Amino acid sequence: MSMLRTLIPFDIAGGMALTGKYFGKVFFSANRKKIRTQLKHFTQEYPEVKVNLAPRYRGRLTLLKDEQGEIKCVCCLACEKICPTEVITIEKGKKEGRKMPFPVRYDFEMERCIFCEFCVESCGFDSIILNHQFELATYNREDFSIGMEGAGQNMFIPSPVGRHSVAED
């Protein structure tokens, strides 16, 4: 009797009918009419719909400036020392009219970064953050080298590929 039950696909047909019923509801409701409260969509319609990221999302490293437009970094090198992958390179310099040291060069190699946020936590002057830029793919390896100056590698603005992928808070 059990052999006959496995040969007759009643259970398979019943399962396929149930799957087809729910597939039809989801397929014909997505992007066509209001989604009923019974159906829950787990995918986001990016880029048409704004992406909701977690508040503690760790994106690309960004160097911050103060109200006068000066870089907040005072070259304490805490971020460079604590980085486990050694992707941050800072060169100190002096600037006329500024008492604290000034970064002449602040480089960040994003391709090796593990986004651990140790650099942000170690900075006692709140001069760096991990922003909410989530689309970090590029076609050139050179685009992962980010510095203080340059057209495509500027640490103060989102990178060119992800210019439209910065989630708004």
From TrEMBL:
The record's catalysed reaction(s) read:
a quinone + NADH + 5 H(+)(in) = a quinol + NAD(+) + 4 H(+)(out)
Q: Which cofactor does it need?
A: [4Fe-4S] cluster
* Top-level enzyme category: translocase
**Superkingdom of origin organism:** Bacteria
Ranges of residues in domain 4Fe-4S ferredoxin-type: 61-93, 102-133
Protein's cellular compartments: Cell membrane
State where it is primarily located: membrane
Q: Which Gene3D superfamilies match?
A: 3.30.70.3270
EC number assigned by the record: 7.1.1.-
Q: Does the keyword Secreted apply?
A: no
Residue positions annotated to bind [4Fe-4S] cluster 2 are C83, C113, C116, C119
Q: Name one Pfam family in it.
A: Fer4_7
- Keyword annotations: 4Fe-4S, Cell membrane, Iron, Iron-sulfur, Membrane, Metal-binding, NAD, Quinone, Repeat, Translocase, Ubiquinone
User: What family does this chain come from, according to its entry?
Assistant: Belongs to the complex I 23 kDa subunit family.
Q: Please describe what this protein does.
A: NDH-1 shuttles electrons from NADH, via FMN and iron-sulfur (Fe-S) centers, to quinones in the respiratory chain. The immediate electron acceptor for the enzyme in this species is believed to be ubiquinone. Couples the redox reaction to proton translocation (for every two electrons transferred, four hydrogen ions are translocated across the cytoplasmic membrane), and thus conserves the redox energy in a proton gradient.
State how it assembles.
NDH-1 is composed of 14 different subunits. Subunits NuoA, H, J, K, L, M, N constitute the membrane sector of the complex.
Name assigned to this protein: NADH-quinone oxidoreductase subunit I
What is the species of this protein? Geothrix limicola
- Name the lineage: Bacteria, Pseudomonadati, Acidobacteriota, Holophagae, Holophagales
Instruction: Please name the gene that encodes this protein.
Output: nuoI
